[in-house]
Records
---
Amino acid sequence: MKVPGELNPGSRILLGPGPSDCHPRVLRAMSTPLLGHLDPEFLSLMEDVQAMLRAVFQTDSKMTLPISGTGSAAMEAAVANLIEPGEVAVVGVHGVFGGRIAAMVERAGGRAVKVEAPWGSPLDPEDIERALKGDGAGAKLVAAVHAETSTGVLQPLAPLARLAQQHGALFLADTVTSLGGHPVDLKGWHVDVAFSGSQKCLGVPPGIAPLTFNERAMEVVSKRKEPCRSWYLDLGMIGSYWGTERVYHHTAPITMIYALYEGLRVVLEEGLESRWERHRENHVALVAGLEAMGFQMNVEREGERLWTLNAVTVPNGIDEAKVRKHLLEQHGIEIGGGLGPLKGKIWRIGLMGYSSQRHNVFAVLAALEEALHEQGRKQSPGAGVAAALESYRG
């Protein structure tokens, strides 16, 4: 065959639902020469990664490590290690990813009791409680998505974790789109198990996924009646490699762990509180600009909106796919469309990690104005950028 040309992808500003742009230091770290996955220097680096993950998750759980795979691999590792055939899990579903957790429960042989909310609203704790007293009585697990990427909803976790504890269940949280961009306090909120992804607010390429189990959860895992159905995601075996035993399980993705190491260093050098505030400030400015342009957000209440993933309702008469195409081809800006029942109805604008910067807020607002002008939508020139600027000044 003819050998393809040299790799030279176009330049993009990644403002979709993920991946986000990587910090230059992360990209440089990925060019570091490889070590063996049992090399003493690499084993020491692994310990540093675990310590930094604990700091970002705000947990002291010993079983905190990165799974070799994307966030969905960590999601499946969490479910597969907790659920055995016939066991019940109460799963909050108000978007795509709650539904994915429920599907994984059923593939593990469990029974998922779904508690649903509209795609644009958080779960009601009273609905979770009714499920735990009704069809989900005796549940082993309660699961919810902290940051629902498909809708832009921020879900309070502490009330749900309290309910799980009161009913003798473990609590599992999906923090894929919140870790590093929103406050995540697993110990303070009494979250037993949580997972995340690298490619969102941590500013690392996709392919490595933080996962943490507290002692309460690990005690449940240790008492399983049968082995985890996934050999690759068996936490007992993976934990033996990441623990003091250093027992070989699989060849770790060395370069991705380098990237995660540097990404976590960037997060902690900035400081969690400062990083959260940067994400909040840029979100508020973007929303101010969008509203000045006549847009409405998919999530009605400000306190229920993600800072990291902004879901914008597409106005009537606007070809949403054509707008996204214009942004990509004319400005090199990627934003996302809707999923499931929101397909064609929203844009998803991510401001995550290294991508959450003021100049990106101004760039996407200006590009949207131009794209909408091409479709005949009249509005005050520069209104979005001006409103965002005023937000920063105020």
Note: The first strand starts at residue 13 and ends at 14.
---
Amino acid sequence: MNIIKKLTLLFLSLLFIFGCEEVIELDLKTVEPKIVIEAIINNEVNASKVIISRSTDYYKPGKYQKISDAIIILTEENGNETIFNEFDSGIYFSEPIVGEPSFTYNLKVIVDSIEYNATSFMPEPIIIDSVRMRKNDVGGRGGVTSNLRLQVYFQDKEDVKDFARFKVYQNGNLVSGHNLYFDRLTNGNYINFPIFLDSNRDYLEGDVITVELQTINKVTFDYFNVLTKVLTSNTGSGPGNDPVAPANPNTNWNNNSLGYFSAYSVSVDSVLIEKKK
């Protein structure tokens, strides 16, 4: 009988410097524990962040090990360096830094004398023109609104391969982060991008729904594209009705580590849930 190991990855998503927490549990093909490095820098004034953990055993779900005392250095293509300090166990922040679109960034992480490196290019931002909401029905307690669909309008950049990730917040709390866009068939077009919200969640009149459009590079897109397929996979079961483990998400880290380093640019817009007329 095949033994399937389980890797628990913690994705902490930031909105307005400190945002909410999103925990994602994945069944991955990880036999031995591996270093998992999740790192971001963007073009907003905030502290860039790195989370370092180690994958754990399938039979110990949620028992991921945070890694402390790492050395982390961010290097810009102009040679400027930024040091990260440990904020909490396995969570590291830099001093407030504004990333520069069209710059390439290198991140070096040293854990137990082993060096891990990743490089990420920050694309020019796609700017949200507007966000609108389509409501299919309103009802239930307190005027709960359900079956919501967001429409995000923006101009795709011509002659540029645009990749984007959309994160959605309800009153500042993350509700979705797995909506991806690639302009393979829409290069240079004016885009009306639909995002379907979770129908099992309550959305009330007066709630503010915020959309964060992250313009990402292809490496980051590939990572989240595989991750999204993992989360929505219904590939059946293996022996003993164990789930069949999908492939590990792609990574731009070297040295047999997992995770991602994303340098992305940001555009944000919001819409208010109003009473249906």
Note: The first strand starts at residue 6 and ends at 12.
---
Amino acid sequence: MSNISVRQARLDDTHAISDLFRAHIQTWQRVDTQGRPEDVHYEALTIYERWLHGGAWMSVETGALQLSHLLRGAGLPLVAEVEGQVRAYTEAYHSHEPTPFGENLSMTHPMVHPDDENSGLEDALVTDLIARAKRLRCDRFQINLAVYEHRTFYERHGLRPLVTTQRYNLPARTGQGFYRAVEHLDSSASQIEDWYMPVGRLGSARQQWETLWPRTWDALPEIQRQKTHRLHINAAGQVALVCCQQQLYAPRNLDVFCWSPKPLTAQLLTSIRDWAHREGYRTLVLAVMDSAAKILGPEAEADGYIQETYAVELR
């Protein structure tokens, strides 16, 4: 399409962006009183039941919260229009990280209306963001992709594999070592500037922070009941900010995310495992780069989920 234009999203775009995401849902369901899924009309679902189909953009209400958060400085939301109609959307996050990522602009894969797939909308958004990354004087423009997902598309724009991340299950376990873990609710992203994200980097460090640390979704009581622990840990002198999120369908499992001025160490891992065991959890789910996998030890079991960070150097 030659009449595509790209611009920053506005709060007035919330309904149109939500429509893009919801257009990909073929059947709306909820669980009945017998625990069985039943097909229902979208309007019959609660906001939380809609959320379960794909997150914040499943409702205008939660979509507005997400877009407001981004527009207040958390990230960069962009829309692609055709003849004044929003037909595609993406988000980008500006991160300052140590090598190999450096200062980067990292995007989410665009959401395009099903009627407009392969129409050049994704290309327009990527081209715009690469230009923005250059203006920001970023070292790299990048995206995290499940293995073999959309790789040919991004290779056309010059992106190549940078690092591989795999996800593992690791038992929570008491361990020997001195550490201190306290609740930490400060959500300012300035705290993690130039820090590593040695655990849980399934987007950029900034993207994961803005998704997990601010208490944006506590307005939904069902999400608030799903425990999220935000911790400041000092383990043998290594400081880390650690987010542990209780899994929805396995409440004794924790998804772990960690930011630290140093890479992952055995002492930090031992402290996280010990803290989780004391809190009554059984299994930690950790995504780590291949270079750090050996630190997890022989008890770690890969669950088969693999991501690659694709990047293009800009300077």
Note: The longest strand covers residues 301-313.
